[in-house]
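Q: I have 418 residues here and want to know how they pack in 3D. Can you give me a structure?
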Amino acid sequence: MALNEDLRELSRIVFSYPAIDNHAHAFLRDECKYAFPFEGLISEASGEKATRDATFTMACFRATAQLAKLYGLGPGADWEAVKQRRKDIPYEQLCRMCMEPTRIQCILIDDGLGTAEKMYPYRWHDQFTGSPTKRIVRVEALAEDVIKCAIEAQFEGPEGGLSPSKLLHTFVTTLEASLTAAATDPEVVGFKSIACYRTGLDVTITTSLVEDTAVLNQMEQLLTRMSLIHMSNHPLRLAHRYLNDYVVNVTMHIAGECGKPVQFHTGLGDNDITVTKSSPSHLQPLIKAYPNTKIVLLHSSYPFTKEAGYLTAVYENVYLDFGEIFPFLSPDGQRQVVREVLDLAPTNKIMWSTDGHFWPESYYLGTLQARQALYEVLEGSVRRGDLLLSQAVGIVQRALFDNANTLYNLGLEPQWTG
């Protein structure tokens, strides 16, 4: 009887305790809600064939059943029926229908996804949470804006243009000023790097950008590309080893001085990632070089969760986020990842996120499935006697709320009715 009471209490807390979503993205605007294929909800795959294949995954089968229930459809509804039903629900109602059950108290939004014109500003999401939404600054996007502004200025300036050497100087000074301004902005609680997508996580430790041939050649390439971009209005994408590594290093330095964590995309992503360079183990030199800068390994580092847990266990400044696997993995896969997170990582250094983006359903599924996986793993440990109820409850509270509250210096109290 005592065990059953313990498990009921654990269930009550897992499914009702307020959460801080420590990494997410904005909703699509109402007028842009069909801008991207809805299959992006259950897969990072791109291309018509790949997204069609995604509907045959365990992740999609489960998401279909859960969304069908949310929308009031019958148990036999398929993916197409779910897609059709959501079109019939007014967008504001759909957003509230998805967000109210999540018990998300605060969202930390990376608003540098590159589709800002199609998405709501981060503070718009306050209507769904008990505490104000905060920003995570994507540093590669910031660096791209710095370069773009510097180069575009030449088109409006006197004749003679901008030399690679001058562009390099402008880039360095403006980037440092912009990062410092962001780090001291109370609305900004951290930074994020997508080096994983650009040149890989094997970041070289560097403290300056010297005017050597390789760096100046990259600046010259940017000048040439930007001349074309200026005429075609296409976005700039910074993917140059020396420049990208410098952006990460200067971010680490400034973030450490200002006490702001730096999130890194690790592991799970789309086909733009080189999988072999997405393991967090590549970050070990950077972790050692900046011991005063807190690093958050995002997305469970899947499929490199064990490596991430190891780094979290042996380095004081490394934290592990278990997100994005909800709803991208099967139920068994999710439970296995949560087990691997708990294998070695100190439970005062793990935190949860939805990686919610575009669709309110991504927040709904990301929360529902995470709570289910967390309960099922901890329930097994309590049942076997590996954990006391109080220890399991402590893990839940730290993972869902306390750790992120402390790391990002949010100063929140959990708004919990029990």
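Q: Anything worth noting?
A: The chain has a mean pLDDT of 91. The longest strand covers residues 104-110.
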